[in-house]
From TrEMBL:
Origin species: uncultured Gemmatimonadaceae bacterium
Protein name in the entry: TMEM205-like domain-containing protein
GO CC aspect terms: membrane
A Pfam short name: DUF4149
UniProt keyword terms in alphabetical order: Membrane, Transmembrane, Transmembrane helix
InterPro entries named in the record: TMEM205-like
UniProt main location, coarse: membrane
Keyword Transmembrane helix found: yes
Length: 153
């Protein structure tokens, strides 16, 4: 039971941090900072630790579930959290960083038809999709782990 409870705590902490960043920090940054470039830079500094934490938490939760005898979704969902975090951090993140370095301080200064702006938009969309997939997987993993805890109690 301790393995499942630890998994629940890890996933809940990561999901809470992710929801705070996505629902509070990012909108607040874009609302109060004087430029979208500054807000994007702030959010861009917040996301990598979340992605890396998702890798660690997802892998740890999966290992805890595996060690506790879990299989199926209770094992797969935390792995999705880890894989989505890894994809966002190590595949998408570096490509966004290279584009930002090439573009300069403001993506918004580019014409809407500029291929670099379009590429940035696509990569941003993939990053959002990966974070969303990780968040939904973490929430589903929490439900599955909590149900397993209840059934054992």
């Amino acid at each position: 039971m301790t393995r499942h409870l630890t998994s629940v705590v890890l996933l809940a902490a990561w999901l809470g941090a992710t929801l705070l960043a996505a629902a509070v920090v990012a909108p607040a940054a874009f609302a109060v900072l004087p430029t979208r470039a500054l807000a994007g830079a702030l959010v861009g500094r917040v996301l990598p630790p979340l992605f890396l934490a998702g890798v660690v938490v997802g892998a740890a939760a999966a290992a805890l579930q595996w060690g506790g005898g879990a299989r199926g979704l209770r094992l797969a969902l935390p792995l999705i959290v880890a894989l989505a975090g890894a994809g966002a951090q190590f595949a998408v993140g570096p490509r966004i960083a290279r584009l930002r370095a090439e573009i300069g301080p403001s993506v918004d200064a580019l014409a809407p038809t500029d291929p670099r702006r379009r590429a940035f938009g696509r990569l941003h969309g993939v990053s959002v999709l990966l974070l969303g997939a990780a968040g939904l997987s973490a929430a589903a993993a929490l439900v599955a782990a909590a149900a397993a805890l209840r059934s054992r109690a």
